[in-house]
């Protein structure tokens, strides 16, 4: 049995979209971040950094496999199933480049932008301008790529899943922001129409 530890955030939804796309059977354990449930010792044993998403799989013989972080979860299941990741080295190199842009640039930048522009008690123009600029840099790179290809690695892959929830959040919260990036908007609408993506975006309820 697989249990996904998650909360309704873009990083959590990368993991649930992946599992839905692969048709993996899993249980959902909601970790209430606002109530500090991620700081409890039982969750710390699963996710040493006390962040969601994390996943536990009970294996035959009583063994347990844990993994934490949306990137580790996506790569593990893509490699294990041979799906949502290209076969050829060249295509995989391109897919990994966009996958990592989602994991290490787009996600952290979007979160820091939110922290400094909305949550910070003191508004620091330098920090707001920095993260806004970095976010626009990510959007610009994605938009240019998606002007040439339908999905980030040609066919739908974990590269798309790594980026989609943060672009979906911008589509909801950012007003007409995506209108400035027409290729990114086209791709957002295409990915958002996938039934498994829609299911994954509802996890946890
Ligand atoms: N690199 C991690 C980041 C995960 C992450 O930032 N999770 C946030 C929710 S989106 C979290 O659990 N935050 C709780 C905390 O910071 O205490 C990933 O890609 O999954």
Automatic annotation (TrEMBL):
Molecular function terms from GO: transferase activity
UniProt key word Transferase: yes
Keywords associated with the record: Transferase
InterPro entries membership: Glutathione-S-Trfase_C-like, Glutathione-S-Trfase_C_sf, Glutathione_S-Trfase, Glutathione_S-Trfase_N, Thioredoxin-like_sf
Alphabetical list of Pfam families matching this protein: GST_C_2, GST_N
GST N-terminal domain segment(s): 1-85
SUPFAM superfamilies cross-referenced by the UniProt entry: GST C-terminal domain-like, Thioredoxin-like
CDD domains given in the database record: GST_N_Ure2p_like
Chain ranges of the GST C-terminal domain: 90-205
Protein name: Glutathione S-transferase
Organism (species): Azospirillum cavernae
Organism ancestry: Bacteria, Pseudomonadati, Pseudomonadota, Alphaproteobacteria, Rhodospirillales
